[in-house]
Every structure is written in structure tokens, then in C-alpha cells.
Design the sequence.
């Protein structure tokens, strides 16, 4: 009898302990975004890799919980939302661990993954209650392009069309957009809509956006969902475009236009897009994020020229609006998000020599902080840094005309050729026009250097500082 | 060295045998700010 009581008591104790632990567990929802090709997939793969393989030659000296020996282990656990795609970590690691390692295939749309990190609390109140605690990290990966749609919520179809038409009429976009503009201008806006023409022109507009992004290296792409449609591919809600000839139409007729004429249907779909796509994203996802990292590749726009860099600047300004929670912010009025830490990271830091990292960060600072005076960041802690989620080069020095020059050694992405190179300096601010007229930037793209085992840590630059900023305070 | 004195230094390719890998002076888990805090921190309160 006494034995049963003892067993029961022990079970009860275990249950109470479990319950206590469960209530003491902490959660953080970390959102990872960046304009396409900024290295989101590599970042998340590396983040997960460093945490789950900690101890296996990991380099996380600046992550306090690891440095202080309080990190126990991390593992992947089933994600929170079952209706969202799972981030394909294993596919990413396969790309890095195969004989000739490559960059993983980029992700499209939104995906999620959950990590459970076990650690020993040291400073927080948790240490009085439990020896070990668990931090659950929900990582959400979503395209930065989706944040570019936020300003649309404040615009009417007419305002958005006029703004976009102006962008299309400016070089370098105009060269490829000219035919599209001509076709749209030929439409009778008040004629009964032909849905096929609408679908064709929408497809043409989407092709233009893809061309702007991938060939011209432009960053301001609206509507953002057009180039990364996810589950909405071919849905009529994505079949609209800016009407480029607003100057020539009668305002009253436009106000009274019904939904079955061209302009009426474009307007109706624009409104529907804002309601069902843009607002839905902010309502369902954005409001739940606690921490956010925005990845930006500053080197490729420099390679592409001044227009591309200016466009990145404009895109970053638009993205910043999603994080401005001042009184006037549209976001506060609509959804009241709760992000309290925001990290901007210049990716591909390993593509330039270490002494250039300072300039890379300065350049990013200019992109990010320029709009700061208009915004209220009281509630958000912000930081910028230069990182390489997966380090692809080795730094060293070479003799050049009697002096030692900092250089990198790595494999060219285009042909896997091993090269030793000083890849060029990074300007601390955007060069003046006269520089661009004479010179261009030509940073080299590198591919991963050598295969890394599935359970080995990927080489990186400053991932530990990223973790300390985004997770450190939750693991005290 | 003229190229490197210019405002924005341009790219220079080297022979692969002209490369001396950078030596890591300190193990990654030794942190200068903690060293300084230990040695100097109490004198600067």
C-alpha cells in the first residue's frame, strides 16, 4: 500500500514538475525576411545547423548561453501552424554537404519551422524554479517583397496607378515597359471588360516585374505577391495592373464606373488584393512576430549600378514602414504588431575582405537609418551588422608591389574556379555620379568552398552575434 | 599600390600560390571585452 502511495506521489510530483516546466517554457517567434536572393534559405539553414549541432566544432563564442556553458541542446520539433509549409532544412543541408556543394534552392512563399532549445537559466527568475528551461523558437520565412505591399493599403487604385506609372516611365524600367504602357493606354477603360485581355496584360506585367527584379536588379516590386504568388498562382486576385493613362480619363466617369468595365474591374481587384492578400498577411502572420531579421544584399545592387542601388534604398524605406509603430502608423491602427527587436544584416560579408565589413555596415546603416527621423522606434531595439550565414571564402594576404594586401580565397560561383583575389573595396556611402560614369563595381559571387557533413557546423561570420541579439535575452 | 590608393579600390586577382592564410590569434571563445572587463573594469566604475 505504502509502495503504491510512493509511486503515486512520485508520478504526481513528475506531473507537477512537467506542468511547471510547461508554464515556464518560453516562446519566441522569429521572422526572417529579405528581398529575393538575399540569402534567406542559407540563413535559416545555417541558424538551425549551428543550434542543433552545437558542440560539434561550433563557433558561437558571442552567443552568451553557449559561451557560459549553459546551452544543453537544440532539436527540431513539430511546427505550430500545420497549414503553413515546413522549412526544408534537410534539403538545404544536402546542398551544402554534397560532393560539390552548392547554394540551396531558394524558397517561395512562406514556411515555418520550430526549434526547442534546452538551456540552464542563470540570471532570470527561472533559475529558482527549474534546473533546465526550454526556449521554443518558431522561425517564419517569408519574402521581403510582401512588406513592399504595405504602402498600398494607404493608396487608392488611382494613386497607386499614378505612382507605378511614373516608376515604369523612368529608366531603366522604361526600356522594357514601353510596349506594355502602349498596350494599356490603348484600352478603352469604360468598355465592357474582356477577362482574357486582362489576364494577358496581367501576365505581361508580372513578366516585367520578374525582369525588373532578376535582370535589372531592381528592388521595388509591386504588388510583391505577383513575383512570388505561392498558392495564389493564376488566381484572378493577382490579375490586375496599374492603369497608366489616368491623366486622360474623366474623373466622374471613373468614380461611377461599374465593376464590369476594364477600369472598374482593375479597381475592384486592386481593392480585393489589399483586403485578402496584404491585410491577411499582416493579420495572420505579421502581428505574431516577436523578433525580425531583415537580410539585405548590398553588393549585387552596387554591381548593377546606381539605379539598382537607389531602388534598393527606396525598397528599404518602404520595408521600414512595416516597422514604424508611431501614432500615425497604419500598422498600429490596423493590427498592433509586437516586434521588439529588429536586426538588419548585410549578407555576403565573406565576399569582401574583413577590413571592408565596417563600410558594408555603414552602407546598410544609410539605407536603414535615413528614414529613422520620420519614424518612431521607441519600442523597437534595432541593430545592423554584416554577416555570412555560410562562409565561402578564406581570408589571408598576398604580396603586391612589395606590400601585403588583404585577399580572399574561394571558388567562383560561375565556374567553381579557385581564385585568390582582393575583391574590391566597399564604399562607406553611395558614390557620386561622376564615379559611376568612369567606374563600376564588380564583386565576385562565390559558391560554398567544401562539403560540410550533415551533422557538422557550417562555417559562418557573426551568426553568433545574430543569435545573441535575437535570442540572448530570452536565455538568461 | 596606386590602384589601392584610389577612392574605391578596385579588384585585383592574384596567383593562387601568392596566398598566406590568416592566422587566428585567439580561440573564438576568448572575448576581448571580457578580458578588458576583468582587468580594467573595477578601476573604471
Sequence:
Amino acid at each position: 500500500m505504502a509502495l503504491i502511495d510512493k509511486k503515486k506521489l512520485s508520478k504526481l510530483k513528475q506531473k507537477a514538475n512537467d506542468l511547471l516546466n510547461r508554464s515556464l517554457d518560453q516562446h519566441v517567434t522569429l521572422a526572417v525576411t529579405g528581398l529575393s536572393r538575399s540569402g534567406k534559405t542559407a540563413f535559416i539553414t545555417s541558424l538551425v545547423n549551428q543550434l542543433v549541432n552545437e558542440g560539434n566544432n561550433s563557433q558561437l563564442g558571442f552567443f552568451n548561453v553557449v559561451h557560459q556553458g549553459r546551452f544543453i541542446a537544440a532539436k527540431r520539433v513539430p511546427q505550430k501552424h500545420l497549414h503553413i509549409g515546413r522549412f526544408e532544412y534537410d534539403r538545404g543541408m544536402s546542398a551544402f554537404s554534397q560532393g560539390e556543394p552548392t547554394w540551396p534552392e531558394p524558397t517561395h512563399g512562406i514556411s515555418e519551422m520550430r526549434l526547442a532549445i534546452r538551456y540552464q537559466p542563470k540570471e532570470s527568475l527561472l533559475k529558482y524554479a527549474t534546473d533546465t528551461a526550454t526556449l521554443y523558437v518558431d522561425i517564419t520565412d517569408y519574402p521581403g517583397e510582401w512588406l513592399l505591399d504595405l504602402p498600398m493599403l494607404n493608396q487608392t487604385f488611382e494613386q497607386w496607378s499614378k505612382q507605378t506609372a511614373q516608376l515604369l516611365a523612368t529608366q531603366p524600367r522604361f526600356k522594357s515597359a514601353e510596349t506594355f504602357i502602349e498596350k494599356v493606354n490603348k484600352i478603352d477603360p469604360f468598355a465592357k471588360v474582356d477577362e482574357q485581355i486582362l489576364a494577358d496584360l496581367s501576365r505581361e506585367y508580372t513578366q516585367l516585374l520578374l525582369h525588373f527584379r532578376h535582370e535589372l536588379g531592381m528592388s521595388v516590386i509591386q504588388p510583391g505577391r505577383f513575383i512570388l504568388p505561392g498558392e495564389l498562382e493564376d488566381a484572378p486576385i493577382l490579375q490586375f495592373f496599374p492603369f497608366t493613362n489616368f491623366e486622360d480619363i474623366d474623373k466622374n466617369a471613373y468614380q461611377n464606373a461599374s465593376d464590369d468595365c476594364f477600369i472598374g474591374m482593375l479597381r475592384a481587384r486592386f481593392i480585393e488584393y489589399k483586403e485578402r492578400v496584404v491585410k491577411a498577411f499582416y493579420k495572420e502572420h505579421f502581428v505574431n512576430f516577436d523578433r525580425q531579421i531583415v537580410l539585405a544584399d548590398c553588393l549585387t545592387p552596387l554591381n548593377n549600378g546606381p539605379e539598382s542601388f537607389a531602388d534598393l534604398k527606396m525598397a528599404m524605406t518602404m520595408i521600414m514602414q512595416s516597422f514604424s509603430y508611431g501614432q500615425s502608423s497604419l500598422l498600429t491602427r490596423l493590427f498592433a504588431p509586437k516586434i521588439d527587436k529588429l536586426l538588419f544584416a548585410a549578407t555576403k560579408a565573406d565576399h569582401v575582405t574583413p577590413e571592408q565589413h565596417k563600410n558594408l555596415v555603414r552602407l546598410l546603416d544609410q539605407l536603414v537609418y535615413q528614414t529613422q527621423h520620420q519614424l518612431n522606434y521607441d519600442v523597437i531595439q534595432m541593430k545592423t551588422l554584416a554577416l555570412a550565414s555560410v562562409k565561402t571564402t578564406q581570408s589571408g594576404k598576398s604580396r603586391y608591389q612589395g606590400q601585403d594586401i588583404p585577399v580572399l580565397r574561394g571558388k567562383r560561383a560561375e565556374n567553381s574556379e579557385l581564385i585568390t583575389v582582393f575583391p574590391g573595396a566597399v564604399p562607406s556611402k553611395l558614390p557620386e555620379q561622376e564615379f559611376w560614369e568612369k567606374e563600376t563595381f564588380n564583386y565576385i559571387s562565390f559558391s560554398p568552398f567544401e562539403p560540410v557533413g550533415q551533422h557538422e557546423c557550417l562555417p559562418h561570420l557573426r551568426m553568433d552575434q545574430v543569435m545573441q541579439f535575437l535570442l540572448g535575452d530570452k536565455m538568461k | 599600390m596606386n590602384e589601392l590608393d584610389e577612392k574605391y579600390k578596385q579588384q585585383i586577382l592574384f596567383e593562387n600560390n601568392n596566398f598566406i592564410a590568416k592566422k587566428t590569434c585567439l580561440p573564438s571563445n576568448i572575448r576581448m571585452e571580457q578580458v578588458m572587463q576583468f582587468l580594467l573594469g573595477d578601476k573604471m566604475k
Remarks:
- Chain B has a mean pLDDT of 72.
- The longest strand of chain B covers residues 12-14.
- Chain B is about 30% helix and 10% strand.
- The interface with chain A takes residues 1, 4, 7-16, 18-22, 27-31 of chain B (CB under 8 Å).
